[in-house]
């Protein structure tokens, strides 16, 4: 009896209990560590495709210029342009033969809208104008063509007034915009902001820092890029658009997560789920 109540026996009983407690603490620490690692992995997976607020803003970098020349570039007439040329004189009947009517026009249509009536610049850069004949217009500005017509008609009409406009001023907006497509503009004063507005704005995955503009000028194809987050973008030579410009808004890298193969996404989520189940099993089995 004395031996059973001795201090040695009590110590012997406490040692296994202490070992068990220490083992439980070690298992708990291991489980907590695994839980933290899995939690970090899940957060990294969930937020890998998040877009930062600053990536959604225009005009957020640099300084605004003190002043900006509010003058769009001169439009250059090119082959396939459709021109509206109106000759005006005090006597309407005198100028009538020099104005187009539906019976003798080049007509195109745009998405079911009313026909566009005008002079089509052919592949050689020429048009056929009443009273003057075949004349080369490609490479000229609107003002230069106006002066040329006034000179050519000076022997036929008294002080004719000439009004010239581009009818098929078309731009195409593609990429990360809400409504990509081609648009015919009502006037020649068009900016890249107007273009993205016509396309219902940029998506949340649009890369505003590297918008590509493809332009055909003097028979050559030019490539320019602009940064809409730059406050000095209004001074870019590509800020004002020209006829037939193509605007491509490239996606941010985060866009990849939304269009990748669905099987791959299922496998990733399955792996996360399997890891979570395994962790729960380890925690409760100990």
Automatic annotation (TrEMBL):
Its Gene Ontology cellular component terms are: cell outer membrane; pore complex
GO BP terms in the entry? monoatomic ion transport
An example of a Pfam family matching this protein is Poly_export
**Keywords of the record:** Cell outer membrane, Ion transport, Lipoprotein, Membrane, Palmitate, Polysaccharide transport, Porin, Signal, Sugar transport, Transmembrane, Transmembrane beta strand, Transmembrane helix, Transport
Q: How does it sit in the membrane?
A: Multi-pass membrane protein
Q: Mainly resides where?
A: membrane
Q: Where are the membrane-spanning stretches?
A: 21-47, 266-284
The chain positions of domain SLBB read 171-249
Which compartments does it reside in? Cell outer membrane
Q: Which InterPro entries match?
A: Poly_export, Poly_export_N, SLBB_dom
Residue limits of the Polysaccharide export protein N-terminal domain? 71-164
Q: Does the keyword Signal apply?
A: yes
Gene3D superfamilies tied to this protein: wza like domain
One GO molecular function term of this record is: porin activity
Q: Which family does it belong to?
A: Belongs to the BexD/CtrA/VexA family.
- Record protein name field: Polysaccharide export protein
Which species expresses this protein natively?
Neolewinella litorea
């Amino acid at each position: 009896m004395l031996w059973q109540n001795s201090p040695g026996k009590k110590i012997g009983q406490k040692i296994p209990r202490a070992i068990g407690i220490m083992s439980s603490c070690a298992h708990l620490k291991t489980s907590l560590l695994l839980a933290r690692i899995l939690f970090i992995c899940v957060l990294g997976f969930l937020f890998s495709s998040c877009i930062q607020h600053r990536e959604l803003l225009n005009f957020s970098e640099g300084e605004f210029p003190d002043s900006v020349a509010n003058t769009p570039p001169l439009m250059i007439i090119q082959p396939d342009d459709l021109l509206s040329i109106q000759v005006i004189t005090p006597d309407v009947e005198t100028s009538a033969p020099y104005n187009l009517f539906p019976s003798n026009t080049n007509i195109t249509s745009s998405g079911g809208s009313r026909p566009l009536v005008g002079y089509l610049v052919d592949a050689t850069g020429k048009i056929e104008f009443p009273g003057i004949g075949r004349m080369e217009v490609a490479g000229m500005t609107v003002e230069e063509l106006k002066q040329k017509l006034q000179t050519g008609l000076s022997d036929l009409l008294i002080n004719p007034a000439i009004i010239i406009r581009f009818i098929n001023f078309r731009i195409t907006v593609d990429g990360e915009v809400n409504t990509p497509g081609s648009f015919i503009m009502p006037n020649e004063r068009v900016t890249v902001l107007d273009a993205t507005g016509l396309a219902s704005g940029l998506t949340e995955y649009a890369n505003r820092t590297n918008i590509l503009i493809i332009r055909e000028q003097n028979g050559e194809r030019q490539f320019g890029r602009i940064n809409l987050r730059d406050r000095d973008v209004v001074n870019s030579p590509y800020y004002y658009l020209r006829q037939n410009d193509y605007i491509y808004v490239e996606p941010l890298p985060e866009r990849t997560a939304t269009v990748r193969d669905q099987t791959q996404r299922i496998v990733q989520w399955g792996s996360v789920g399997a890891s979570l189940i395994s962790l729960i099993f380890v925690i409760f089995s100990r």
